[in-house]
Structures are given as structure tokens and as C-alpha cells.
Amino acid sequence: DLNNSSQNGRRLTLGGMGGLGKTTLAAMAACLTELRSEFDHILWVNLGSYFKGGSDRNNLSYEMYLDCVQNLCKQLNVSSVFNCEVFLQPGDSKMNISSKYIQAMENLKHEMSKIVQGMKILIVLDDVWSHEDVELFYFGEHATSSFDMLLTTRTLDLEPRIGSKLINVDFLNRDEAYYLCSIEAGLVGTIDTQDVEIIDSIIEKCGNLPLAVRAAGRLVKTSRTLDPDMSLYEISKILLTSTESPRMDHVNDILDRSFSFVKDTKASFALKVLFSAFAIVFHRDDVSRPWVSLDAVKLLWKALRYSDDLKELHCSLKKFKLVAVEQIADLMCVMGVFDRKYKNMPNQNERQKWFRIHHDLMFEYGKTFASKVNIYGGTPVKYRQHEITHYDECIEVSCDLILSRNTEKLNNAIVESFKSNSTSETAENMEAYTINWLPLHMIKAGLHDKASSLLMSNNYLGTQIALNGIENGIRLMMSFIRSYEKALNASSFLPTSPMISVISFASIYISSFTSSAIMHDSIRREIAEALILLGIELQKFSKWAKSLDLFTEVLNIFRSSIGGDYTQDITRVCRHIDSCALRNIILVQRGSCGILCLKHVNALCSKKKESGVALELKSHPGYGIVRMDDKFNFTGNKIMSWDYIFLGVGLKESSLVVNYDGRSMQSLPSGHKLAVHAGVLAESMPVAIMSEVQFHNPDNKETNEKSKKKLCAGSMLTVDQDGSIYPSMAPHLRLGIAEYPNLYLVDRGSPNRAVFRYFVHLQSMQKYNSETQPNEAPGTKLELDSHPGMGIVGYKLIHNPIVNKGQLGALRLGPAEEALSGRFNDENHLVFTGMYNGLAMTTGFAQNLKCGKMVYASTCDDSWFYDFKVNV
């Protein structure tokens, strides 16, 4: 505050973790014309430079302080000859020696006070480690002119000076970080729409920390210079996923210095081990820095400190009287690597301490450290310059492998620690850990069956909801489910996963609350939000029919609510319902309005990609190419057969992940190819994931080879520069989206079942048909009462000689005025009239009868299922 220049001894502290730009801000302030005109001299001392390297201190010694004072004299351009020699006697005790050095430092301070007398001074102390050192530089205690101080520090001042001000330097906001990254990457003015999301993901990974954003931007620029053909998407994947990438070396060095607060090498190393264990054990995919109770921290750190592998490190902490877990956690708060808060817990009289990692990049540092050091055994792996002097031996092991091993071992350790404590007197304090962490730690420890059993426990789910609420409790369970799938190394959600049963169990449990006659609207809203979360998660397993049922239930909850305006909620739920109305991906004419265009074209077509690319759509923002069924369906004939899953357009979170070799796309992790079904390259033909063909008569080589060649043509796909995809053998066609959503099977009690408006007439027609010639029987319009204004409509018929010797057409939900007409024959076949005249409703092979299976119209085939009945 320059307007308050009459005040002497002003002190401003810029606080925050390393890499925020505190020093840069201080330097910019010192260069301001307004500030320079206010003072006769602006002095600068970098205190942090004295504690680098081999220093065993975190506060100034006499020699360090003398060097600082001489440096200040040079900046003032005055003589620096001080008569402050310290005379030590052979019999001096340690206390006497310390007293003499302290007195000598006070004498130096007094001499400097006389030198600056009458001058207007601003002294900048950069990178303060010990706040006790600051007083040594306050030379204006008896000055008649102004003497002010500007400090930068990453440590917490437990006893701030009265009247001093603290500014916690914040992280960059999104726009600032975006601009800095673009400048450093050399991308200003060259960024297209799809690259914006990629840069945002890089910024998020950097935690909006200026130093990290700048380093990431420079890596992007270097990568593009070395390989101009490398896409920004590919660079971002390297930057965001590779543990062994040197991308963050400089940033990690800055963060590593936080642990130099404890100068003993072994003790500092022990703190890093404990911190890194905290980072990788108490981490969830939905939040990297969750708050963790002190009791949970004790479970982990006690298991580590008393293990045989880390006894030596435990002893090093005891030398500094760091015995209690709470003491160590509090010290990490002072060091600036932990945050701390107090929280009231149910059934506990005292408030409990909770801790979390100070920033996302500190979590990244912990993960990086855990990938360099074999925590059980303490041996650092060979990784550029690990700078850990405690051990001499290095071993050649993948950093990703070390991190994976440490993660499993540490999670096993805390689970075992919990078991040993669950029967003790502190068991009641473990409720928060059991609910918030135990399932995740079981999953990461490889105890998958135990984790799924726990999640499907009525007691667990009830306690989860009681402790965290309905919506937040379900959110936490969803994060466990995602971690479960990730632990199985599944690139896409598996239809056989036990997590589907967990989701179904949770949805039934939550739905049971709606039967209560008296329920506050806030509870109704929580139930609705929880069911939406469960429905979205089911979509990732391609359980579209089940998720549709949940969304419909939510719609009914909002519509039945009395208080409040739920218009926006109803609109939102309707969008979720629409996302379940999948529309087939089919072949359309080039130039059609429904053509699909991929988002990450460059990454997909790159020859240097190391992993799959998600098939997100540029033509339909927020959507991607997804599986329409949760399981493979069977089709074929007496000659051959194969399994398949039709593809549709759904939410991007469920997008397929594929590899593309320039000729065909392979779905990951199965390796099955994307292909035009049955190899029929004709308009309106659906696109599917297809397995390898099984030939039933190997002796019929000529026929088999001909069929194989035809099917192979269906899997040969070309990706155009605009992102559109077309069969290489039919460039006049493109992959597009069907006009109307498909008709498929649902559960008998589903709220989304199709109810025919004229079902009485449709049923009575069966008797009429038995007394009438088939070609004389009229049809009943298949309009739906359950979906007002809608009916069952058809599309272009196709001829598929491999699957069915006759004609085949998909049945869809469309406008009532376009609805087909049909009648039942004596065999309970729903036979169509008009456009689909003579074709019957079918689901294909009988083994495909299941919820979510699509329904067609086809020429009757003895091996297919056609029997349907009208429920009254």
C-alpha cells in the first residue's frame, strides 16, 4: 500500500507451494516504477540458495548470515568490513558456542541498522525456509525512515508478526493457463476447435501451476519441432500417461525441495516414503486430493513404519522425535505439502483432524516418487537422476511396474492393518474408513471378489447413505466401480463384470425409498440424482434398456413431486432418455445429412500411436460410436457363423476404443474388427463389431473362400480427412446414422415397453385370420399408446444371402403416420402388410432372446425366432 507510506516496518508475505511464481511476482513488483520511486534502495536476498545441495540446516548459520550481509552491502555500494569475529575457547560448551554466534549475528544486524539509517529500504527475502531468520534482516527497528520487507515462502509461519500481511498466491485460472500453454507451445492462432479440449486436459494435468504449464507447453513445442507429423492428441497422451516421461523433471525438483525442510537425509527420505504412500493409497479417480481422517492415516503409516523393510527409516524419524503419526502429519502441513482441517464425526465427542495433499501436482510428485523407489525394500530404480543419496544400488526396472507393485503392496498393507484394528477398541472410529476407502483398497490390492461382496452388502450401502447421503454415497460407489474396471485393465466396460450386479443392487435399494408415502422433496431429488448416476453407469456397460428404465423412473419421480419447479430437471432427464434411444450406424449415400465424422482423425491415422483412440464424433459433439448390445449375438447358417454387436451413436463416455492400421479398425481389448455386417456393401446396411468367422465345413474350400472374401470386404474401411468413414470397396457410401431409433426387447415390467393402441383389434385378428385366406386378411396399424404420436416403422429392405436367404429390415420407433400395419397368423407370427408385406417380426436366432436385443422384419427362416403374443 504505497498510499500508507508513513507506516514503517510494513511486511508482506507471498505464500504458496513451489512453482506458483512467487519469486516472479516479487521480481515484477521490484521492477515497478511506482515502487522504485518510493524507495532509495530495493535489496534482494535469495535465502533458499543457502539450503540447497549438501546443507544440513534449514535456518541460517553465522557464516551464511555474514555472507548475506556482505551481499547487501554490495547492493548498497558500501564497505562490508565488519569487526564481528567470534572468539571460541577450548573449554566452551555447546551452549556457550551458540550464545557467542547469536551475539555475533546480533552485532552484524546492529551494524547494518546503522548503515541503512536514513534510507528508505525495501528488502526482498526470497524463498524463506525458517521464519525465525526473517527477524535478522529487519534493520529498521529504530530507523527514522521507512524499512519494509517482502517475503516469498512455501512454509507456514506459525507465529506471524503483528501487522504483517499474507497473500496466498493462487493458481492460474483457466484462461491464464490456456494462454501461457499456447504461448510456450507456439500454438497461438493455430488452434482448431478439437485441440481446445486437448489443451484443457494438459492444463488440468498441470494443476494450473505456472511452472508446470510452462514446462508442458515447451514439451509440446519440442515434440512438434522434432516430429511435425505428430498430432497434439498424441503428444498429450505421452504427456499425461507415461510414468517414465521426463516431462516433469524440473517441476519435480522444485516440489522435492519441500522435503529439504528436514535436513537429515534418511529422515527426509522417510518423509518422502510416507508422503508417496499417502498419495497413491488415498487417491480416487473422481478426486485426486480427498480429505482423509487421521485414523485412516494411522492405519497406513503404522503399517509402513513398523514393517521389517522400513525399520531403519523409522529410527531416523525417532531421532527428530517424530514418533506419533499426528506429529508427522502436522509437520507436513508446516512444510506446505499437506492441508489440515477439523471435522465433527458422528458418535465422537472430539473433533477429528483430516488431511489432504496440498495440490494436484504434489500428488503427481508422490506418484513419481513411488515409481522410482521400491517402497518395500527401499531400493531406488535407475531413473535418470533420482538424487536419492541414501542408497547406492540401482536396478533396471520399469517405473510403471514399480508403481504397480507399490500400489498393490501398500493397499494390501492398509487392508491388513484394518483387519487387525477392526477388533480393537478403536473399531468405532473406523466407520469412515470402511465406507470411504475399504472397497477401493480391496480393489487395488487385487481382492476383487471381497470388494464386490462388500459393495453388495445391505449394511454397507445403508451405512454409506447414512454417512454421506443418497446422492454423494452413490457417487462414491460409482468411483469404486470405475476403479474396479480399471484394475482389470479393461479398455472398455465388460458385459460380464460383477459391477453390473452391484449397480442393479444399488438401484433396487434406492428405488425402495420411493414407496414411502411421506417424503420431503429434497429426498426425492437425491433419489432421482442417484438413479441418474446409476443409469449413466449402466450405459457404459451397454445396458441401454436397463438405464432407460431408471431414467423413466426418475422422470416419474419429478413429475409426481408437488413442491417446486422441476421443469429443468424433467428436461434434463428427457435428454438422458433420448440418449438410450440408440440409432443404428448404417451405410448412407455420400453427401447425406446423417454422415458421421470422427473427432481425433490425426491420432487415429497416426502410425506412431501406442494405444487405442476413442471414436468420439466431431459431427455430433458429446457423442461417440458405441456398442448397441451388451453381449455378442450369434448369426450364420449351415456353412458358417460368427458373433457380432451392432454399433450406434451414444454418449461419448461409452465410445469404443480402437486401433486403425490404415485398412481396418480393431476394437480394444477384444481385437474384433469393425465391419459392414455380413459384408453387404449396400445403403442402409448396419455396421457392427464382428468376430472371426467359423466355417462348419472345411472341405468346402471354394465356397468358404468366396464367403471369406466377401466378409473381408466389409471390414476394409477408409478414414477420410474430414473424419468420415467409408468402405474401401464402396467409396460412394459413408458411415451414417439411422433416422429413427431401433426397436428392442425390454423386461416384461419395464415402463418403456411398447403398448399398442389397437391391441384388442390386433388380438382379434388372429381368429379372423384362421377363417380367411392370408392374402385377404387386413392389417392393424401398429401405432403405440405408450409413446403418443409414435408407432413401429420400417426402413429400406436389404438382401443378405449369407444371413437370411430372403429380405431383412430393421424395425424402428417413428412417427405414427408412417407406422406399419400387421396381423397375427396361426403360428403366432406378427406378419406385416404394406411396405413389409409378407415379412414377419423376429429377433433372429432364439439364443439371442434377451433384454436389449433388437427386433427386425424378415422373410421367415426355420432357424429364427418369430413367436410373439399380445399381453392383455
Unreliable stretches: 243-247, 381-395, 490-494
Amino- and carboxy-terminal Cα gap: 82 Å
Proportion of strand residues? 15-25%
User: What oligomeric arrangement do these chains adopt?
Assistant: single chain
Please tell me how large the radius of gyration is.
35 Å
| Structural classification | alpha+beta
Number of separate domains: 6
DSSP strand count: 34
What is the averaged pLDDT score?
Answer: 82
Number of helices: 27
Helix content: 25-40%
Main β-sheet description: 6 strands, antiparallel
* Shape by Cα distribution: elongated
Protein name: NB-ARC domain-containing protein
GO molecular function: ADP binding
Pfam family, one: NB-ARC
Explain this structure.
This protein is an alpha+beta fold and about 850 residues long. The protein folds into six domains: about 1-170, Rossmann fold; about 175-240, no CATH class; about 250-445, no CATH class; about 450-580, Serine Threonine Protein Phosphatase 5, Tetratricopeptide repeat (Alpha Horseshoe); about 585-735, no CATH class; about 760-865, no CATH class. Helix content is about 40%, strand content about 15%. The chain contains 27 helices and 34 strands. The strands form eleven sheets. Strands 13, 14, 15, 18, 19 and 20 form a six-stranded antiparallel beta sheet that branches. The protein has a five-stranded parallel beta sheet with strand order 2-3-4-1-5, sandwiched between helices. Strands 26-27-33-31 form a four-stranded antiparallel beta sheet, with no helix packed on it. The longest helix has 23 residues, at about 400-420. It is elongated, with a radius of gyration of 35 Å. The N and C termini lie far apart (about 80 Å). Residues about 245, about 380-395 and about 490-495 have low confidence and may be disordered.
